[in-house]
Amino acid sequence: MADTDVLVAPNILEYPYTRTVGPVLGRFMTGLRDGRIEGIRASDGRVLVPPAEYDPVTSESLDQFVEVGQAGVVTTWAWVTEPRPPHPLERPFAWALIRLDGADTALLHVVDAGDESKMATRMRVRVRWRDHRVGEIQDIACFVPEEGQ
Amino acid sequence: MSDTDTVEPVRSIRAPARLEYRFTAGAAQSRFLRHLVEGKILAQRCPQCGKVYVSPRGACAADGVATREEVEVADRGTVTTFCVVNVKFAQQVLTIPYVSATILLDGADIGLMHLIQEVEADQVHMGMRVEAVWSPPEERGPTLESIRYFRPTGEPDAAYESYREYV
Amino acid sequence: MRDVAVVSFAQLPNVRSEDKRNEVEMLMPVISEAIEGSGIPRKEIGFTVSGSCDYLVGAPFSFVTGLDAVGAWPPIQESHVEMDGAWALYEAWVRLQHGDLDSALVYSFGKSSLGPLRDIMVLQLDPYCVAPLWPDSISVAALQARAWLESGHEESEMAEVAARSRRDAKANPMAQLSEERDPATLLEEPYLVSPLRRHDCPPLSDGAAAMILAAGDLAREVCERPAWISGLDHRIEAHGLGVRDLTTSPSTALAGRHAGGTDVEVAELHAPFTHQEPILREALELGPQVTVNPSGGALAANAMMVAGLTRIGEAARRIIDGSATRSLGHATSGPCLQQNLVCVMEAR
Known about the structure:
heterotrimer; A: mainly beta; 1 helix; 8% helix; globular; B: mainly beta; five-stranded antiparallel β-sheet; three-stranded antiparallel β-sheet; 2 helices; 9 strands; 10% helix
């Protein structure tokens, strides 16, 4: 026993959080469960997706929901060649910020494009829904390049 | 297709997080834990105030200086305060009620938390003299579990004056 | 405003893994060095404030055990921020403005070696719509890097920042990563998360730092050339990555303007990823005459919760040692430069 050796032990932490979503995100999550994507209209007319509870400029509470499209444009992306254990996909994929049709802000999600060469900023992508949906962001399994490109 | 036929709105999400860390004990605590394997309780003395800390963390919390002098303290001491656990919780290994106590080991200047067994919970009291019950040597490891618990020695209670500073 | 100065700064050499010392054992020497460097007796320091993050350690309230290194008895006036130590510095500066105390100890510590840092950093993201997907810290930075590149920049600019930072770090004994590399050969390396290569990312570092602030006459008494804080401000942007223009840093620009960040000779910018340095330079309107990150910056040593305070400490050190008369320290927090602090210091 080397008396000077410092002891190291695994320390695995699991936080089984359940989060209350409130009326605004609750409606967004309910929409996802039902296969619908809803944003919210800000005081300057912009549509925020995901919706915010408050106006980003005036801080007034917001309640005018707007359904947006299930396809949109990639505004920036990053290609992951080696997915990490908690990542949504086990094969190489892209993280992307996606501005859905009818929205003015971008949503962070993943694009299952197969190969980095299929990715480009301003490309169009479409939602692929998960089979069994419960009302959470993972109800969107991923986005895929829109057909015909 | 929705997974549920309900029209109830979503009110909450499950957001579990799992993270795997490596805990490093540091030099002082590692030496303390390794000495437990040999049935010894290693402490450290502050070079400024002279107080003896167990378990040692390499520093005097009052003076903010490194504590390098090592001293062995006794495996018996005095209960300075305690609580009787009556609440069930996950991963509980003992049957309730049981007693968790702060024990001022002879020679130490800070209490050590451990269990008191071999006595009814309602008999444990401040000033009670207790001693360590060690695991058999072959079952010991660098963990405080090498001391299974403390039990009463049968000695007369310590006078309150002898431990009032540590309550 | 009351005149407050940095009079002493100390840091540990940054390493990949401090596996022989716990946080207290790391902090003790660095806090002692800062206090001794200030000449102010430990028990006379008016206020103590630290910056750290419990998630890095995986232990709630780990900052409380860090206090063992301070000597907090009899009970001291103390506070903590769950942020980089630069924000602890801000609290100390505000506290000294009250006028009843003349000195403060600021310290921070962080070990990236204890857990999966890229995943731990996910816990700072929106827990409803973003964190459940686990976008790790390098992936999130890569989204910003591509947005910046496509706004009219080249990967070679990023490689230049990497090469210069690690070359400058050779003169910094506290740096972890220092090397002489040709930017052109760096671009031959594969992507880690495209468009980021390994050289665009900071090293994983364990470290600690401590600083002493003093006000007015006390600063003049204990330090020959105090680094007087002439301006200090911090600003934050929205957490949603998709609502921000990631190619600019309006919060840095605003903090810089309010802190009066003009006419500095040296700037230490907390830019953990290469593309973030030019974004910050532009936001702060730093011209080519300004020496940026002579320490090597966060690309050479990036102890979480420490690297921001270290930027201010490095900038202060150049005032104290007489090599500069006006310097700027910057710290960032949150994903993609979400929150930014600017501290301008000068000799008087």
